[in-house]
Write a structure and sequence with these properties.
Number of strands: 0
Number of domains: 1
Largest sheet: none
Order of helices and strands: HHHHHHHH
Helix content: over 70%
Shape: elongated
Structural class: mainly alpha
């Protein structure tokens, strides 16, 4: 077979061109480091999904709580019950705190794929440690989600400190992960 179609059918030539492109782009998807980097991103995405689910549960509980305990003003009761307002605000703060931790996790860096990182740090070893930390984040996020899931506003208000303790543990794990990347 000769002619232009033979040129595009030469698998050895095509493979060599592809490999040169991959190396030129600084990427070789068969490297362990790239697989670990992708796993890291996937795990953190799932952790954010768990936290988003927990936040949705809190927001649903807050909405139901407001419907029950903060009815529209009437002549008999023109002002809302201060305790009910405080409870609704506590649920709102919990939802915002979960969202803040989720945002931190979403924005966490992963080591760049460049020669300076490779020169000063063992990239694969660093990524393995980051994945272990990310596993802890996933476990903590699932524990928080499970603790909040299906609970009503009154329960969440009464037990909100446990949820905030879970968020504090997640925040500490995020700090450890950030510290891991900035060590020389």
């Amino acid at each position: 077979m000769t002619g232009p179609s033979a040129f595009y059918a030469d698998t050895d030539e095509i493979d060599q061109i592809a490999i040169n492109l991959f190396h030129g782009w600084g990427y070789n998807f068969y490297r362990l480091e790239n697989q670990l980097r992708t796993d890291d991103l996937l795990i953190r995405n799932k952790v954010c999904w768990l936290l988003g689910s927990a936040r949705s549960s809190v927001e649903a509980a807050e909405s139901a709580y407001r419907r029950t305990f903060l009815p529209p003003p009437s002549r008999a009761q023109p002002r809302p019950d201060p305790d009910a307002v405080a409870g609704a605000q506590a649920l709102e703060r919990l939802s915002q705190a979960i969202g803040a931790v989720e945002g931190q996790i979403r924005a966490l860096p992963v080591p760049e794929n460049d020669r300076m990182i490779e020169r000063h740090r063992q990239e694969a070893a660093t990524l393995v440690i980051l994945l272990a930390i990310d596993r802890r984040l996933a476990g903590q996020a699932e524990m928080l989600r499970a603790a909040i899931d299906g609970k009503d506003g009154e329960w969440l208000i009464a037990h909100g400190t446990a949820a905030f303790d879970g968020l504090a543990a997640l925040t500490e794990t995020v700090r450890q992960r950030q510290g891991m990347l900035f060590i020389d």
